[in-house]
Amino acid sequence: MQEIVDATIENIAVSQRANLEVFSGTLQHLARTDRDIIVVTSDSRGSGKLVPFGQQFPEQIIEVGIAEQNLVGVAAGLASAGKKVFAVSPACFLTARALEQIKNDVAYSDNPVKLIGISAGVSYGALGSTHHSLHDFAVLRTIHNLIVVAPADNFETAQAIQLAAESDVPVYIRFGKKQMPLLSEEEKTFEFGKGRIVREGSDITLVGTGETVAPALLAAEKLEQEHHISARVVSMHTIKPLDYALLQKIAATGQPIITVEEHSVFGGLGEACASFLIQNNFCNRFKIIGIPDEYTVTGSQTEIFNHYGISEGGIAAAALGLLS
Amino acid sequence: MLKVMSEKELAQKSVEYRKKILKYIYQAKAGHTGGSLSCIDILNVLYNYTMNVDAGHFDSPDRDRYIQSKGHTVEALYVVLASRGFFPETDLDTLCQYQSHYIGHPTRKVRGVEQNTGALGHGLSLSVGTAIAGKLDKRDYRVFTVLGDGELPEGSNWEAALSASHYKLDNLCAILDKNTLQISGPTSAVCNTDPVDEKFEAFGWAVRHVDGHNIGELMDAFDALPFENGKPSLIIAHTVKGKGVSYMENQLKWHHGVPDTQQYADAIQELDELEVTLA
Fold first, then answer.
1. Is the Cβ–Cβ distance between B231 and B201 less than 8 Å?
2. Mean local confidence (pLDDT), A296-300
3. What is the ipTM of this complex?
4. pLDDT at A2
5. At what angle do helices A269-279 and A244-252 cross, to 10 degrees?
6. What are the tens digits of pLDDT across the range A191-213?
7. Which helix (H) or strand (E) holds A207?
8. How far apart are CA A54 and CA B271, in angstroms?
């Protein structure tokens, strides 16, 4: 039997574990005092680190087998009866196979399901493109009545899960399974739709989301040390609704802006920012870093990141290019 | 509280509903005529005899739930909800009109509607989730869903059918409106799902057949729920697409055909004559 971690927010924030583990720990923490917390899985309790949850709260976990459409439909039915439902499945299957259920049963019918996309982006690495979710931001952004979130570190993940549990609107939260460093000791506020400035800077702004904020932070430090360039780093954990106020503030400085995401360069964070900027007459130099329009190179998540420049060196080089 | 109708009153009500379905489809110049007429007797018995739900207590956590999986026959649902006082029937004058809430598929913007449906193959999963919640909360409510035979090839139905028996949802009843026609032709020719009773039985359901236009048989079947303790129930209602209007019955063109003025008058006359015989 796996050890059941007492996932208080305090020990999560400094633990630097995988966001996936923080998710499951937070859920256990919440379920202890709230019998309405229900997890629905599609043979995903192991990959969702939910075995301890199932052992501790056997009446609060519903297994539907490998059937993602049913997963989301059942979750919506449970939510309609007042349950606080977390539908947990790999992001690739959840957001493609069950897209119509997300659209109709959750968002359109306004059943406040919390859709949890585990092992998101290229977390599955060399398992290949069937298991990658590089489309989810793009498709889910177009669905009305759905908050889309990619927490960067353990703190953001714990906060996002807690906020989602109490949310009366549907939420999609996606994360990976790699250990993540804590981004900021100082910035301890978290709210859906409000980006977090995790590093201040005056020459350029790097806007990341999810697990790309960490390499953006490394790139900022490299730029400072090697080139005396001061880079601000933002964790734009909420893709929708996007923090337009923060974007406007950044754009008004005239700084170049680079967005970084573990997603196709089409339709994700970068294009969402670009759309806002250009329609509000901002002409900042601008670059989108993400996965280009191709099925990815074979490799681990880190190798894929490095290959496409979602890395300390790649982001720093892009910054130098934009500033030259 | 529900004033339970007698079999005779229900039979009269069905004729009234059929006339209203035709009226609002004729006015709107849009609607799913044939399927609304095939499922209306089922909805009539559910809302006026079987289900514990009423407009005054629609927020009650103990209410019985109805989720219409074959959402396109929304006109049948709207006229029943209006007659049960969920909204003024005059609202239906706006059916499918610009800016109306009364769109061509069920929407929760209309009071009394539990879930937004219309894409096929969704109602059963929603019903399974709602029924599981009832079991978890130890509430006595039941969940009813009407499926169309044309939507059964959607794989999500069978995913949901598995979960329903896995979780022993004897508080769930699906009614199959088996009118045997879909937009492209006979359901058996488009994608044969027979023997559908054996398929559901193999999936762990308890199954009964009824004449879906025989009020007494429908009442008896609903009275007998659950058919087996620990199993979800399926009522296979053998129905006629376009039932009640002789020139529409079993005619594919009336899947979403809209009567012209003369056709509308002929249909109403036929139903008026039937009404007299039932008085």
1. no
2. 98
3. 0.95
4. 35
5. 60
6. 999 999 999 999 999 999 999 99
7. strand A204-208
8. 57
Question: Number of A:B CB contacts under 8 A?
Answer: 98
Cβ–Cβ gap A77/B137 under 8 Å: no
Of the candidates A295, A272, A130, the residue with the CA atom closest to the CA atom of residue A209: A272
Q: Is B117 on the interface with A (CB under 8 A)?
A: yes
Residue B234 C-beta-side C-alpha neighbours within 13 Å: 26
Measured between alpha carbons, how far is A186 from A36 in angstroms, rounded to an integer? 34
Element of type H or E holding B223: helix B215-223
| Four-residue CA torsion sign, A276, A279, A283, A288 | positive
What are A's interface residues with B at a Cβ cutoff of 8 A?
Answer: 38, 59, 62, 64-65, 67, 69-70, 72-83, 100-101, 104-105, 108-111
Q: Report pTM.
A: 0.95
Asked if residue A6 has pLDDT above 70, the reply is no
Q: Is A83 helix (H, G, I), strand (E, B) or coil?
A: coil
Check whether A254 has a pLDDT greater than 70. Answer: yes
Ranges A3-12, A89-98, A221-230, B49-58: which has the least confidence: A3-12
Nearest Cβ partner for A74 among B117, B129, B137? B129
